[in-house]
Amino acid sequence: GAGVSQSPSNKVTEKGKDVELRCDPISGHTALYWYRQSLGQGLEFLIYFQGNSAPDKSGLPSDRFSAERTGGSVSTLTIQRTQQEDSAVYLCASSLPGLAGVIFGPGTRLTVL
Amino acid sequence: RKEVEQDPGPFNVPEGATVAFNCTYSNSASQSFFWYRQDCRKEPKLLMSVYSSGNEDGRFTAQLNRASQYISLLIRDSKLSDSATYLCVVAGSGGYQKVTFGTGTKLQVIP
To answer: Of the four, A8, A11, A14, A99, which is 20 to 30 A from B1 by CA?
Structure first.
């Protein structure tokens, strides 16, 4: 596609359930980022994938959070045993090799009841 | 110290005013710099790159001061449609090219 796509656009779940969020980056973009943003707050870095290098997981807030990127393309962010404080918009972004700016997807709005 | 720091604002300015935002970064090896704009409940979008020699795009001027490790964004003749949050972005350090976002500066242009 022409841009970064994310699915679902909205997800409502119950506390304690697991959720999977998907990101399809722009074709050819080797770098992929996950961020989350709570209402009225700044972007919180979660994880960074760059090509075949080991991902930078330094932003993952707990071991309930994990992400993978298959074949250097699609990425899935998994949150296990969701908590109410996990409610936020989860944004994926990708970029070309080198120091280009990143392009964001529209985000997934997660609500944990 | 945060890698990228911005004044969160809000900056409330009248239409037609000139407003400037600064952003400081901690890693002197950073190589690329950008300003992004984020509208309410939308994803951030690239506004402009920031070049060493400074660059201008219409009413927007971006400048980089490597010695003092800050970048700036100047908006002239503010429009109501400029109301948004402006995010400073710093990228690249050696072979590790991760981008880092500031928390943003909120601008409200008032009639």
So the answer is: A99
Alpha carbon distance B71, B33 (integer Å): 8
Chain A CB contacts of B36 under 8 Å are: 101
Alpha carbon B91 to its chain centroid, in Å, reads 13
Residue B76's nearest CA partner among B99, B56, B59 is B59
Which residues of chain A form beta strands (DSSP E)?
5-7, 10-13, 19-24, 31-37, 44-50, 65-69, 75-79, 88-95, 103-104, 108-112
pLDDT digits (tens, 9 = 90+) for A14-69: 999 999 999 999 998 989 999 999 988 999 999 999 888 889 999 999 999 999 99
Considering CB atoms only, which of B31, B43, B103 is closest to A99? B31
Buried b (16+ CB within 10 A) or exposed e, A5-23: bbeeeebebeeeeebebeb
Mean pLDDT, chain A, integer: 93
Residue A2 to chain B, least CA–CA distance (Å): 15
